[in-house]
């Protein structure tokens, strides 16, 4: 049944693997799951852009879902990285996959929106905690065209579609994605991965008028030389390091099919609250004519997890004035779409299949590698509970005395407060554990001394 879902060529190759009898049933199912995780349709016009066979995903890098360090009752009723109380947006600028020409690159834009936003959030938290950030430039935005030039058919493109985990795996293997100043987005595949298609500069040659444009006036950026003539006539001298973002780990979140839509939604909330936005696969039919003024309701019905045709970024959640829980999504169709490029989907019911396939990524560094301008960020759990400093519930007493009588929970900014209510509870638990450990050690010591003296 599963093999019949693939095109004829891929089905024949898979039959050799899965029906050979040389793999255990559990390993066959694991490999199938890896393949299915790469399915993303890049269009909403009925075109089936299925990416099959990205073996380097390594079972989603072999990583597991991040530790559940946040309890469900600690999650705020409303939060958005688009609107942090007292701060504003901690998201990077919106990117549009549809211009200068249409490109079915939803998976690419969702993946890099998520990666860039997590870098920005981490840099903000570092600054607020007084940590040094080696990269002094403003927001780091990936060069989408470099991926299209170099990702190739193996990881997907405008025509074939792809997956967010596939983009992150390619980025990891490639040593990072150059920043947007390296390569303008052209929305086309197949330009080739020559050095000047990775990171380039363009200037007229000596004696050439600036109006004389063409490939002859562009060259690869060497990265370690200020001379604009360093690469003239030589396509093989693009020397790293150029500015980039690197990928450390990534993984999948529990799905509605595995744990039910409500439990999947809670897992997605915890991850967004823990470290930043995530990407999710959806059936985008209901988004085509969406104006952003309401919560989209599009129940799952008889659709399955493989009926998705688009990738979006989830940046937060809330409840509207009619009591409907929603996800706040960011699309990649321009700021003129919906609410400045954002919208809302009903949460916790697998509407639009939104809880059927969501993924997280950890940026492991940004800046210029092997220089003083490279910022390492190797620990995925470094800021696991940092969101409590940004979105913390006020004391119950303050809520009960609110003059407006609104029973919606209020949130305040506690960037400089290092011991809010949740942290106190955490520290109390840690203290109790330490006391118990000391008691056990002391008891064991007394028993040992008693036995020795006997």
TrEMBL record:
<comment type="similarity">
    <text>Belongs to the peptidase C1 family.</text>
</comment>
<feature type="domain" description="Peptidase C1A papain C-terminal">
    <location>
        <begin position="75"/>
        <end position="362"/>
    </location>
</feature>
<dbReference type="GO" id="GO:0008234">
    <property type="term" value="F:cysteine-type peptidase activity"/>
</dbReference>
<feature type="transmembrane region" description="Helical">
    <location>
        <begin position="434"/>
        <end position="452"/>
    </location>
</feature>
<dbReference type="InterPro" id="IPR038765">
    <property type="entry name" value="Papain-like_cys_pep_sf"/>
</dbReference>
<keyword id="KW-0472">Membrane</keyword>
<dbReference type="InterPro" id="IPR013128">
    <property type="entry name" value="Peptidase_C1A"/>
</dbReference>
<keyword id="KW-1133">Transmembrane helix</keyword>
<keyword id="KW-0812">Transmembrane</keyword>
<dbReference type="InterPro" id="IPR000668">
    <property type="entry name" value="Peptidase_C1A_C"/>
</dbReference>
<dbReference type="Pfam" id="PF00112">
    <property type="entry name" value="Peptidase_C1"/>
</dbReference>
<dbReference type="GO" id="GO:0006508">
    <property type="term" value="P:proteolysis"/>
</dbReference>
<protein>
    <recommendedName>
        <fullName>Peptidase C1A papain C-terminal domain-containing protein</fullName>
    </recommendedName>
</protein>
<keyword id="KW-0865">Zymogen</keyword>
